[in-house]
Amino acid sequence: VFAESNLKVTGVDFLKSQNTRQHHTDGYNIKNLVVRRGQAFLVQISFSRELRAADKLSLRFGIGENPVKIKGSLLSLRPEREDFNGWKISVVKKSGNECLLSVTSSPYAAVGKYNLHVKTGTNIYKPENGVIYLLFNPWCEDDVVYMANEEQRKEYVLNDTGYIYVGSANNIYDRPWNYGQFEEFVLDACMYLLEKSKLSLTDRRDPASVSRAMSALVNANDDNGVLLGNWSGNYISGTSPMDWIGSVTILQKYYKTKKPVRYGQCWVFAGVLNTVMRCLGVPCRCVSTFDAAHDTEGNLRVDVYLNERGEKLNSLSFDSVWNFHVWNDAWMKRTDLPEGFNGWQAIDSTPQEQSQGLFQCGPCPVKAVREGDVYLPYDGKFVYAEVNADRVYWKVVKVNGKEKYFKLGTETQSIGKNISTKAVGQNRRVDITREYKYPEGSREERMSMQRAYSFIRPSGMIPRSGYASTIETANASAQIVVPKESVSKTGLHLEITNTEALHPGNPLEMAITVKTSTPGNWTIDLTGSCQLQYYTGNVQANLGTIKETIKLEGTSEMQVPLKIAPDAYMKTLSSLEGEVLILVTAIAEVKETNEKLTKETSMRFEYPPITVQMPETAKLYNDFTCALIFKNKLNVTLENCKLLVEGLGIFKMTTFDQGDIMPGRIMKSEIICTPTRLGDKKIVAKLISNQIKGISAEKAITITE
User: Fold this and answer.
1) Which of 123, 243, 282, 587 minimizes the number of CB atoms within 10 Å of its CB?
2) How many helices (H) and strands (E) does the chain have?
3) Annotated binding residue at 400?
4) What is the spatial distance between Cα 533 and Cα 312, in angstroms, rounded to a whole number?
5) 210: how many CB neighbours lie within 10 A of its CB?
6) Where does Ca(2+) bind (predicted)?
7) What letter would DSSP give residue 154?
8) Which residue is catalytic, options 23, 24, 117, 325?
């Protein structure tokens, strides 16, 4: 009689394909069950005999090393009894020795790996692959990451490819990036980061705490995190930041070695953080800001120093303006803040400044940046300065062996332009500047600025270089003055353009246009310079300067050419590891009024395209051929060419050495692809050589059954 009553479990079926479809987790390439919190999933249990009313049955979910009930890390759930912590289970149906149970986790449950044991009386059954991965749930209205719009959820949670926008404000281009949050070992890498973060169970419920911890762990500073940053131009001991086309290789390598991967720059950090957040179930997007301020003093000002030839000087500046900077926005309700700050939150894993002793940044509500509420956690002042600082130009002149600083002018509207992200459901750029800032010059912008300034307290107008005096103007903080543009007497205006396509190996042909628009005769001294710089604003080479005096009358303009011969820059270009931009700076000084104006423009080189040829559709597990074709239309040999190719679900990341490609020569590579997953997929290709760093191409294909 006793043996007959002793109930034992003989098997557990996690009904994986059915559950993962319901939970939008069928993409994860993993043996275990992956589900989202706050939503029911089914478990089929087989017993040694029929389940009776008197039988004691409980499902025990444990998280962490040694789970205990008192700490909330062990949940013991019995059918039909709502448990502490908001989890519940119920019997859906019984038939013979089998029982179908429905388990609903709390929408506030800690995210992570749960070990499931089934207890019957005194027996404990430990199923095979009994570890269940629990993620945030943007489909669940009670989850703080809930996102109402299905198109947005598809983009910000489920899309495993995208674009990161780079270049310069007047020449934005898209860099395809494979996020690959569903690839093998990526989810495990994210779970490893969660464990490494040492977040408490309470903090693991909260996407704000999780996203802050991940912003710290994606960089290697402080904590042996995923990526080591390197802006030196020397990447011999690792992979150049330009050579990645996605996050998958990086996260897989990190998970395997548990050591930081070399090397990253801002778009790589943002690409990886985007993968991590989407993988954990938090809606996330990569955000690029053009002309972003990196201001080490938090005084809302970036000082740019020019020599008498109009060339920018690196050595004097503590702060800098980056041609672009990429961070992320994560979507959540901020339960820790007053009303009105839900929605997108900026997080940044590029190691720039310490926050609370670690290289981490955010989450900072995007609405707080717009409203000037920079005191709100986390790092509001820093993010605000990145998109709102003023740029002040100084001319450094040697007088009797001493350096003197002359102010050339202030630009109040040049920082934080064209804030960009990929459009929802479309392969195009969308401008989200309005989410971060009110229109320049509007009443709301003024009010937001006054508000921000009351918390930041900018210092007086003294150059802040390492050599300049550091005396603050007395009583600078007493009166908060929001800077205004001064009105020009001459209507002086500068424009910088290229007059021919900027192909490496050709002369760089540019022009500075000087315009006046008020009556009078004006004599204008124009100084112009051309330099090569990294996207961080760091100058790598001086290529040439011009100095001219021109006369303009009333409303008129004159175009002054600036031409750089190939010999002046090709050697430098080939020796630099990163992608460089062409920086042109112009200074105009009007003799009659002593008015000064400075303008700078960054332009990127233009490259011939890669063509990808492959069918529009293919069948699952049926091989197809993809051809990659590149014609070197430049009149220089491209040395040490490497072709990088990756297609999630169709082709594993591979690098092909292509040697040198002479002018006019055609490179053709054919690869065999095997589709292992259904749906819309794409091949991403990138060509790298000594002379050029960033030619990318992609092509989409639909995989059917």
Assistant:
1) 123
2) 12, 36
3) no
4) 10
5) 29
6) 388, 390, 440, 445
7) I
8) 325
What is the rounded distance in angstroms from the CA atom of residue 593 to the CA atom of residue 595?
Answer: 5
β partners of residue 358: 355
| Pairing assessment for the beta strands 33-36 and 131-135 based on DSSP bridges | parallel
Assigned token pair, 556: 């008129």
Q: Tens digit of pLDDT for each residue in 168-200? A: 999 999 999 999 999 999 999 999 999 999 999
pLDDT of residue 475: 35
Report residue 682 as tokens.
Answer: 């794409």
Sign of the dihedral through C-alpha 275, 279, 280, 285: positive
- Residue 648 is which amino acid? L
553 is in an annotated binding site: no
Which of 273, 293, 421, 292 lies closest to 348 in space, CA to CA? 273
**325 catalytically annotated:** yes
Say if residue 178 carries a ligand binding annotation.
no
Residue 13 appears among annotated catalytic residues: no
Tokens 């069948």 belong to 619
So what's the pLDDT on residue 459?
52
The one-letter amino acid code at 205 reads R
Which domains are present in the chain? 9-135 (2.60.40.10), 152-455 (3.90.260.10), 492-604 (2.60.40.10), 610-703 (2.60.40.10)
Q: Output DSSP code: residue 459.
A: -
How far is C-alpha 450 from the chain's CA centre? 29
Widest Cα–Cα separation across the chain: 114
Residue 651 is which amino acid?
Answer: F
For residues 626 and 495, is the Cβ–Cβ distance under 8 A? no
Is 388 marked as binding a ligand? Answer: yes
**Long-range contacts at 16-21 (CB < 8 A, ≥ 24 apart):** 18/42
Residue in 303, 348, 373, 379 annotated catalytic:
348
Does the pTM surpass 0.70? The reply is yes
Q: Phi/psi of residue 342, each to 5°?
A: -75, 170
From residue 300, alpha-carbon distances to 391, 416, 550 in Å are 9, 12, 35
d(C-alpha 285, C-alpha 268), whole Å:
13
Let me know if 426 is exposed, middle or buried by CB neighbors in 10 A (0-12, 13-18, 19+): exposed
Residues whose CB is less than 8 angstroms from the CB of residue 236 and which lie 6 or more positions away in sequence, other chains included:
none
Q: What 3-state DSSP class applies to 220?
A: coil
CA-nearest of 191, 182, 272, 177 to 227 is 272
Low-confidence ranges of the chain (pLDDT < 70): 1-5, 84, 296-298, 317, 457-487
Q: Whole-angstrom Cα distance, residue 698 to residue 686? A: 9
Is position 266 annotated as part of the catalytic site? yes
Pair type for strands 284-294 and 596-604:
unpaired
What residues form DSSP beta bridges with 598?
Answer: 587
Q: Using CA atoms, how far apart are residues 333 and 298, in angstroms rounded to an integer?
A: 27
